[in-house]
Amino acid sequence: MPRGVQAFSSPDELNELVDGYFEKCADSGSRGSMVGLANHLAVPTRTLRDYRDREGFGEVLEFAKQRIEADRIDMLFRKDVPTAGVIFDLVNNFGWHNTMRNEHSGPKGSPVPIGSAQMPAGLRAEIDAHVAEVTSVV
Description:
mainly alpha
């Protein structure tokens, strides 16, 4: 469907179609997705992205995406669902962030200082002993 083509006559019509998609998912036990919604509506996902900017339609699609995100969050708490794929989906499709990011700055190849607060005290003492031993030999 070319851009700008009117696929839905009103936000209310789109809302009814979206509700029908989620009812179908509930009846079949399948998980909703924006790609699945686009397939159900018989439009490319690009068309859904275009409709996000149209007044009234954007709210319907944002709420549909929110319903899918809520489903993914619920999946995180189910013992029978592996969470790696769910987390991947949340990070890549819903803007979630992995809080375990390690970001480095400075010139490439520059040494990264390690402070004593970042290592166990026993290791710090062991390193200090080795440094003292090496410097006494030289």
